[in-house]
Amino acid sequence: MIRKYTKDEAFKEFKKLIKKNNKTEAIKIGKVLLKKQVNLEVLNLLTELYIDLNQVDQGIKFYEEVDNLFDENIDIKKNLIKLKNNHIKDYEYVELKINEILTKNPEDLETINTKLELQRITNKNHDAIKYINKIKKNKKIKLNFNTYSIIGTIYHELNLFDDAKKNYQLSIKLGNKNSNVYTNIALIYQSLGDLKKSKENYIKALKINKTNKEAFRSLAFINGISSKNKITQNIENLIANNKINKDLHEYAFGLSKIYDTENDFKKASKFLKVANRSKFINFNSEIPKEIRLIRSIKKIYVNDNYKSITNTKNIKMKPIFIIGMPRTGSTLLEQILTMHSSIKGYGELKYLERATQQEVKKSNIKSVLISSYKDIWPKIGENYINQIKNSFGESKYFIDKMPYNFLNIGIIQRALPQSKIIHIYRNKNDNLLSLYQQRFDEGNAYTHDIESLKTYYNEYTELMDFWNLEYKKDIYKISYESIIHEFNHTISKLTEWLEINYTKEMEDFHLNKKSTNTASNAQVRMKLNTKGIDKYKNYIKYLPELFN
User: How do the domains of the chain map onto residue ranges?
Assistant: First the structure.
């Protein structure tokens, strides 16, 4: 059929078929056109056709053929990257094609941006910093606002806030009109405790885009917007009229927080249910995995008579693990302890889990048998400490406050026996409410379904009972309520157990300049208060199923 067309006629027919939504026939003509000569418009349109028809694999196979025919053409490689990166997530292949393009044209800015973004999403931020320094030295490369935005995000994720802000601002200066860049600046100020500047930038973001979900939700969580605000009313109307489907939970969590702040607990509960129902639909398949995981831990270590031997290579650095359920006050405790000059706080780290997985893989053993392999423990401990050194340098005491390390107490006891473990907990009902109110960035799927939340909490309690029987003298228990009501006594007792001096500066934890990236980063900038104690009583009437 195509043979009767001239090249120009075939191109017109190709576009005509797209307009008529006859995508399958359009692909046939587009493939013939590209095999004869690479036309960028045809190439880009054909990519969209493959995506629309969910034929990404077929598209990749065809483009690889064309890539062999026209190896010098970087546009083919860019479309291969688009299909592999966005739809197949084959990052090794994408990196290969990126390097092919940059070998031919080191100044190709679109590919430079793709490389930086790839390094970011594959957690190669330190490699990205080296590459950033390299491209900034090349005067032939004129970075655009997109480049500076990606660079800003890379620095942001490394908590290099000054560099992040500088690059975000360069992105704005060069014409970035995306409201997310202001949201990112606001997040930096929020992490640093400058809530005034944080609010200013969230508001700038919302002026550009009135439905910027992260700006709206974050502004609500730092009490920077009211229910009377036109933006709030608009979002509430959109939800009422079923006009928001994608990311509904983001807006609903924001509305719930606004009404919670205004003590309208009926409306706060209403939007909490909407938010969690929306999130649950997307993540309900994750819940059984989370519950199976916590149930499996005890089986690994029960009847295990292993006695830990101190790993002398690691003894100079002493981790302080703050463990327990999320939303129990771990960020507050970290802020208090890091007022001591010899203690560094590194937030919620996934390093222990990563070190364990890496060493289990190297040892070629099944993780369920890990407690039987004594040789693996020093390796895990050394791997963990090396990750800390590489990321933060050396310090005698440092805090890892990943709450879910309560799952890993068996590993900590064996791999890092010089560690101190602090188990922080709070009133069960307040904890359940706080978890149900929280929009988590990742994981924690169980928190979005009330029955699953209660089941997980009970499993956590049983596991901690098990650990306390095994290692009672090695786990220090501290309640959130005792910190609030008896600060000096509670913290001085804790510091005595940690074998450090109690200092007067700890009482001024709210002045701590340390950045925090958790949901509690606004609360820990305030002096001690009882707002979070017995808060569940405001919700018993509207969420009785959560507390019974």
Answer: 188-262, 288-547
Q: Which helix (H) or strand (E) holds 349?
A: none
CATH code for the domain defined by 288-547: 3.40.50.300
- The whole-number average pLDDT for the span 199-221 is 95
Q: What's the CA gap between 530 and 148, in Å, rounded?
A: 43
Q: Report d(CA 479, CA 242) in Å as an integer.
A: 42
Half-sphere exposure of 537 (CA within 13 A, CB side): 6
Sign for the pseudo-dihedral over CA of 85, 91, 93, 98: positive
Q: Are 46 and 75 in contact (CB under 8 A)?
A: no
Q: Give yes or no for a contact between 58 and 23, defined as CB atoms under 8 angstroms apart.
A: no
Could you tell me how many residues make up the chain? Answer: 548
Cα maximum dimension of the chain: 90
What DSSP letter does each residue of 279-301 carry, written as one string?
A: HHHHHGGGHHHHHHHHHHHHHHH
Please state the separation of Cα 294 from the chain's center in Å. Answer: 21
* H helical segments located in 442-521: 450-471, 480-485, 487-498
Instruction: With beta carbons less than 8 A apart as the criterion, state whether 392 and 398 touch.
Output: yes
* pLDDT tens column, 456-505: 999 999 999 999 988 888 999 999 999 999 999 999 999 999 999 999 98
SS (H, E, C) 35-88: HHCCCHHHHHHHHHHHHHCCCHHHHHHHHHHHHHHCCCCHHHHHHHHHHHHHHH
Q: Which residue has the tokens 């359940």?
A: 432
Question: What is the per-residue pLDDT for 283?
Answer: 80
> pLDDT tens across 356-381, in order?
999 988 888 877 767 777 788 999 99
Tokens of 159: 């908590």
| Angstrom distances, CA of residue 181 to CA of 76, 91, 185, 190, 197 | 31, 26, 6, 14, 14
Q: What is the pTM of this model?
A: 0.79
CB 385 within 8 A of CB 314: yes
